[in-house]
What does this fold into?
Amino acid sequence: MSTPTFRSELTRGFWRENPIFVIVLGTCPTLAVSTSLQNAVGMGLAVTFVTACSNALVAMLRGIIPNKIRIPCFIVVAATFVTITDLFMHAFTFPLWQALGIFIPLIVVNCIILGRAEAYAYKNTVWHATADGIGMGLGFTLALCAIASIREVLGNGTLWNVPLFGDGFQPILIFILAPGAFFVFGSLMAISNWLKARQGGAA
Amino acid sequence: MSYLLILISAVLINNFVLMQFLGICPFLGVSRRIETALGMGMAVIFVMVLAGGVTYGIQQLLVPGYEYLQTLAFILTIAALVQVVEMVMQKLSPILYQALGIYLPLITTNCAVLGVTLLNIKREYNFVEAVVFSGAAAVGFTLALLLFAGIRERMERTGLPQYVQGPAIGLISAGLLSMAFMAFSAFRTEQMLQDLAALVGLG
It folds into this structure.
C-alpha cells in the first residue's frame, strides 16, 4: 500500500471504509435522525466536528495517555467536544437542536468516535488523524443524507422541506416512522454490499 | 397507577430499540443466539436500573451554572459504575460474573444507558419514576433483543443472497418487528388501566 497522505486518509471514509455501510458503526443516530435531509446534514456536521477534534486531540495526547486508562480518556475527550457542540447548537440553531433532542449528547457514545480514537488516532500523527476524523465524519454525513433523502421524499413528499410532488401525492407515511428507517438502511446496506462486490470482481 | 403507565409505555409502545432507536449496536451485535441475548439483556437491566438511580443523584449534585457538565458527568458515572459492578460481581458472585461478565464492558458505550439517564432528567421524573422508567426501558430492550435473536437463529438456516446477509437483513427484519410493535401505539393505555383498576376493585 502506498504511504498515507492527508488526501487518502480523508477520502477513505467516504466509500471504501464508510463508517455506516461498511464498518456498521453509529447505527443509532443514523436511524433516529434520518427523518429529514435537514436533520441529517445538521447531525452529520456535528459528528464531523466531534470526530475531527477528538481524533486530533487524542493523536496529540497519544504519548501522554497511559495505555490502561485510554478508553475513559477517549470518552472525556469526546464528551468535551460534544458539550461544546451541544451548547453551540442550542445557542445558534435552536430548531435543529430541538429536532435532534437527546441524540446530540448521545454523540459521546457514538461508536464511530471511540472506534476511530482507538483504531486510528491513538496510533497516528495529528495531521493524519484529523484527516481521518473529517473523512469518517463526512462519510457518516453522506450515508445519513442518502438515507434521509429517501425517507423524506417517500414519507413526506418533500426534499429539504421543498414539496416535490403535486397536491395529489399521498406520502408513504411508514418511511418517516420507525420501521421505514430500518427498511431503508437495510436496503441501502445490501445495495452497497452488492456494488462493492461488483467493484471487487472487476478489479 | 402512573408507574404502570410508564412501564407499559417504555416496554411496548415506545420500545427503546424498535421505536426510539437506542441501543441498536448491541441489538445487532449480540443477537445471534438466544442465550447470549438473554445474558446481555440481564446485564443491561442490572446496570440501567443502577445508572438511572445514581445519575438522578448526580444531577441533584450538579451546582447551578455547571449544568453543561451533565453529559460528561453522566458518561463517567456510567463507565465507573460498570467497572464497580464488574468488580463486585466478580468478588461476590462468580457464577453471575461468568454469565454476564463479558457483556459488562460493552454496556458503557450502549447508548440506551446514557439515553435513559438523559431522558429521566429531560422528562423531570422524580426518583422512583426515574428508576421505574430505567427498569422498564431495559426490559423493553431485553424483550426486543430476545425476539430478534429468535428470528435470527431461524434466519441462519435459510439460504439468503450473499449481499443481504449479516446486518442488512438484520435491519430489514428489525423493521418488520418494529412494524409489529407499532400496533401497540393503538393502545389507549390510560383507558385500559382505568378498566383494569375497576376490574380488580382499585378504581
Observations:
- The beta strands of chain A are 158-159, 162-163.
- The longest strand of chain A covers residues 158-159.
- Chain A has one domain: 6-202.
